[in-house]
Specification:
There is one protein chain. The chain is an alpha/beta fold. Helices cover about 50% and strands about 15% of the residues. It has 11 helices and 7 strands. It has a 7-stranded mixed β-sheet with strand order 2-1-3-4-5-6-7, covered by helices on one side. Strand 6 and strand 7 form a beta hairpin.
Length: about 270
């Protein structure tokens, strides 16, 4: 469809050149230039095949970004080309429904991102699980000097649900997932101890929030994070995005109150 539209535009320009003999030479040259640019900037689509959907999605997505963002804000992207100085390091789940750039409207350069199953942060000494996450934390704090670290949990998290459903003798373990979600075992144990008779979905919801709290505790084991907190150059934040009800809950490790958006502040006892 896009190719046909381009070809139609080119033919229309050619017809205009043929029919308008009195057109000034400069205008004719401009139309020829536009014709050539159309052919160069819009390459022909590849033959239809099973990967065409991918090509279409990526092409249209990038062209939309380039025209509405990149070309509309040249000074911003010129500055970003020279370096980044984000204020936030954000830990969020890999779940496709909870992109921080989408739900919190972060733009390029504002937040250094770390996404993983169930938005978990391993303990500092857990080297087997921690190389990727540890490198992100170290770089964000020591090189980029972020001022805030935000860990975002979310409703209906598949990783937390897997954790809560794990038994002692799991018959069909995943290669990596089960070991990873066990980072939050302490949160699971707290849920089972305090709400043993709650429905499974309610237990998962509680664990989703407790896992954020646990990740914030783990962050404070990292020496560069600990140093930033001591010097008051760094703050830790917990967040919980409920995509069922369209709310976002935010709290600071120094403040026991949770703030619900939209809505009025609620205390931690209201969880």
């Amino acid at each position: 469809m896009a190719k046909q539209s381009v070809e139609a535009a080119i033919e229309g320009l050619k017809k205009l050149l043929r029919e308008t003999e009195g057109l000034e030479e400069v205008a004719q040259e401009k139309i020829k230039q536009l014709t050539d640019e159309l052919r160069v900037t819009i390459p022909p689509f590849p033959p239809p095949h099973h990967g065409q959907f991918v090509v279409d999605v990526i092409r249209s997505g990038f062209l939309k970004f380039r025209t509405s963002e990149f070309e509309a804000n040249p000074e911003k992207y010129e500055n970003l080309a020279e370096g980044q100085s984000p204020k936030f390091l954000v830990f969020s789940c890999s779940d496709s429904r909870v992109s921080p750039s989408n739900i919190l409207s972060f733009t390029p350069g504002e937040a250094f991102m770390a996404r993983s199953i169930a938005n978990l942060v391993p303990q500092f000494h857990d080297k087997e699980r921690n190389q990727g996450t540890g490198a992100i934390i170290e770089y964000a704090v020591t090189a980029l000097h972020v001022e805030h670290i935000l860990v975002i949990g979310h409703s209906r998290c598949g990783g937390i649900r897997r954790l809560m459903s794990l038994g002692d003798n799991e018959e069909h373990p995943f290669d990596f997932i089960d070991d990873w979600v066990k980072i939050a075992t302490k949160a699971k144990e707290e849920v089972l101890a305090t709400a043993p008779n709650s429905l499974f979905d309610e237990q998962c919801r509680k664990c989703e929030k407790l896992a954020v709290k646990l990740s914030l505790e783990h962050l404070q084991e990292y020496p560069y994070v600990k140093d930033g907190l001591h010097k008051k150059t760094l703050q830790l934040w917990g967040g919980y995005y409920d995509f069922v009800n369209g709310t976002f809950q935010l709290w600071n490790t120094d403040n026991p109150h949770h703030h619900l958006f939209p809505g009025k502040p609620i205390t931690s006892e209201s969880n």
